[in-house]
Amino acid sequence: MNLVGENLSYKLTEELQLRKISFNFEKGKLYTILGRTLSGKTTLLKTIAGLLMPDSGTIKFEGKNFLEIPVWERNIAMVYQQFINYPHLNVFENIAFPLKQRGLDPQKINDEVFNSLKLVGLEGYEKRKIQELSGGQQQRVSVARSLVKNAKILLLDEPLVNLDYKLREQLREEFKNIFINGFACAVYSEYDINNNKFLGGNVNTCGLGFVLGADPTSVPPVGKTNGAQYTMIEDYVFDLVDKQGLYVRTGNFNISQNNTYLNVGRDGGSSVVVEPVIEFYRTADSNGIGDAGHIDMDNNKHAHIKSM
Amino acid sequence: MGKLYTFLKYFFITIWTVFVVAPFLWALTTSFKDFNSVNGGVTYIPWVDFEPNLEGWRVLIKSPAQGGVDIVEPYFNSLFVTCTASLISIILGTLSAYALSRYTFKAGPIKNNDITFFFISQRIMPPIVLSIPFFLFLGAVNLLDSLIGLIVVYIVLLMPIAVWIMVDFFNKVPREIDETALIDGCNPYQAFFKVVLPNSIPGLIVAGMFCIIFGWIDFFFAFILTFTEVQLLPVKIVALNSSITPWWSLSASALVSVAPLIVVAFIVERYLSKGNLSGAIK
C-alpha cells in the first residue's frame, strides 16, 4: 500500500517550514529527498514518523489515517544522522530493544538479532558496550536496530554523512542489499549527491525526488533513475508555475509535468519535490551547450535522454 | 617556571588542606580527651601528649538521666526527615525536570525557563522570609513540631535543587534518544523509564546527594518549626553547645553529625566528573 501525504504543512520557525507538501510513496521503492540545510528534509521525515504533528494536511498509510496513530504504534524504523543508540545497553540489547518492546519470545528475538548483526557485519560484537565501538560500528548498530524491526516504513536521515569514505562505500553496499531485499518504503535525505549515486543508478526500483532549499538557487543535481547511469547536472533553478507542474526559471530544462505532485516555493520557504520516476534533464541552451542532448517524452510522459 | 609553579601549587594546596582539616583534627583529638587533657594546655598526639579515653563518645548514647546527652533520637529523626524529604524531592523533581526539559509550557509570558527559575527562586529568598509563612501554614494544618511537618517543609526546600540539577542534566541527554525510543515502540512513559532514566543515574545521584546535604545541615527551619516533641540533630548540637556539656562530648557529637556528609561527599565526588552519555551520540 502507498504512503500518501497531502498538503502537509508544518511551521517550526520562519525559516524552517513545510509548505503544502504532497507525496505518494509506493511500496518497495526507495525515495530520495535532497535539499540543503534548513530545507526541511528532517522535518518531513519526523512528520512521517509522527514525531511532529503537521499543522494541516493528512498522511495515509494502508488506507488508514496515519496521523491518528501514535508514533510508538506506527511500526516505523528511523536511522538518525547522529547514530542514536541506547548508551546504557550493550550491542545485543540495543538491537533487541524494539523486539522486546513488542513482547516477542526470547528465542525469536535472539535469532532476529543475530541475523541482523550478520547483515551489518557485527558478529561477535554483541556483548560490547556501545561506547566501546567506533563511530561506524555505532552507526551499524543503529542501522541493525532499524532493520530488525522489519518495519513497513524505513526512514533514513543522512545515515552516511558522519562516516569516512571507505566505510561509507561499505555501508552503501549493505544498504543496497537491504533495500533490494526489503519491502520498506524508505526516505533517504542527504545533500551529498555522491552518496545517492547508487540510489539513482543501480537500484532499479528507486526513484528520485528533490527538496528545494530556502534559497532556490541551488537545487541538488539530478539524475536518471532507471538505467545504470547517473548524470549530475548543477546549478538548477526551478520555479513554481502551478500545483501541477514546474517550469525552469533559468537555464533550459524540461521536466515531465504529469508526474510532479508538488509545490515548489520560491518565496523563501522550503518545498519538496518527490517523485519516483520523474527525470529532469537540461536541454541545450541557446548557445548549444547542454548535458543531455535531446529530450523525448515517452508514453507515460516521462522525459528521457535520447543521446548523451 | 615549571618547578616554581609546581611548588606554589603544592604550597597552596597544603595550606588549604591544613586549613580545612585542622578543625576536624582538633575535634577528633578533643573527643578522646578528658578534663585534665583539655584544660592542661594544647596537646595533639594521643598516648604521647595525653591519655585518650572514650568518655566523650559514651556520653552521646546515654540518656540524660544517666548523665548523657542522648543524641540517638535526634540523629534518627534527622536521618528519617532528610532521607524521606530527599527521596520525595528527587522523585517529584525528576519528573518535573523531565517535563520542563522536553515539553513546552506556556501561560501568557511565562515559559519553561521562567518555571525553572521559579523553582530556584525559592532558594534565593532569605530563609527568614519563608519561615513566617511556613510557621503559620504548619500551625494551621496542625503539623508544627512534627516529623511530617518538617518533611513537607524540606520538600519545598529540596525540590528546587533536584529540579535545577535534573533540568540541566536532561537538557544534555539528546532528545533523539527519546524519539528513538518512541519509534522503537515505547510510549512516552516507557521512553522515560526505560531509556532516559537509566541514562540519568549520575544526575540522579548528584541531585540526591545535594538534597541530602542541604537537608542534613539545615538548622534554621528545624529550629523554628520544632519545640519539644521533635528535635533534629543540628538543633540538638547547638543546644548542647549552650549547655554545660563538656567539650569532649561536644566534639564527638559534631563528628558524628558530620560523618554522613563525608560519605556523601565521596560518592558525589566520584559521580560529579563522570559522564555516561558518550555513547549516545557521536
Automatic annotation (TrEMBL), chain B:
Transmembrane portions of the chain: 7-28, 79-103, 124-141, 147-167, 204-227, 247-268
Sorted UniProt keywords: Cell membrane, Membrane, Transmembrane, Transmembrane helix, Transport
Bilayer topology annotation: Multi-pass membrane protein
Domain ABC transmembrane type-1 residues, every copy: 75-268
Cellular compartments annotated: Cell membrane
GO cellular component: plasma membrane
UniProt cross-references to InterPro entries, sorted A to Z: BP-dep_ABC_trans_perm, MetI-like, MetI-like_sf
Alphabetized CDD domains for the sequence: TM_PBP2
Keyword Calcium attached: no
Gene3D superfamilies: MetI-like
GO biological process: one example: transmembrane transport
Entry's family note: Belongs to the binding-protein-dependent transport system permease family.
Protein name: Carbohydrate ABC transporter permease
